[in-house]
Write a structure and sequence with these properties.
6 helices, mainly alpha
């Protein structure tokens, strides 16, 4: 007896999912974009960590702010690409990156007493899993390619 096939997202629904994850990232990562906004966020994260019953976060040095803002800038750039040109390929890359990020967040949670990292870990796992959901072939893109006389079907990635 075989298991029933998982339902697939339509290509357009998947692109909406990619954009939604990008909007989430834009809101979540914007405070990481400058040393000044990150300093404000870091103070709030430290308070949140204490609220969860853990110690305040360690003070940051300039190099830590540099690394945080580099991360923020990189993620904002990546987010912009997914907002303006979402695709199955970018969604799969983003899903992979999110699951890798989730692994490192989990590692940090085990290495240090930082329960506030749950607010980052859970969404990464959810978005990463959602973006790996199977997608139905893009029938319209294939039809356009056939109508244009292409012998090669449009990239649909039946993943």
């Amino acid at each position: 007896m075989s298991l029933p096939a998982m339902p697939r997202l339509s290509h357009s629904a998947y692109l909406r999912l990619i954009r939604a994850s990008a909007v989430y990232d834009m809101v979540q990562i914007l405070p990481f974009a400058t040393p000044w906004t990150f300093a404000l966020l870091y103070a709030q994260l430290s308070r949140l960590n204490q609220w969860f019953g853990a110690a305040p976060l360690a003070p940051f040095e300039t190099v830590h702010f540099l690394l945080a803002t580099l991360l923020g800038t990189l993620v904002l750039t990546w987010t912009s690409a997914r907002l303006w040109a979402p695709s199955l390929r970018l969604g799969r890359f983003d899903a992979t990156a999110r699951l890798i990020f989730a692994f490192w967040i989990g590692w940090a949670m085990l290495a240090a007493d930082m329960p506030m990292l749950w607010i980052f870990l859970v969404p990464e796992i959810i978005w990463g899993s959602a973006q790996w959901w199977p997608v139905a072939p893009d029938v319209r893109a294939h039809a356009v390619a056939v109508a244009a006389g292409s012998s090669r079907p449009a990239v649909t990635h039946h993943v």
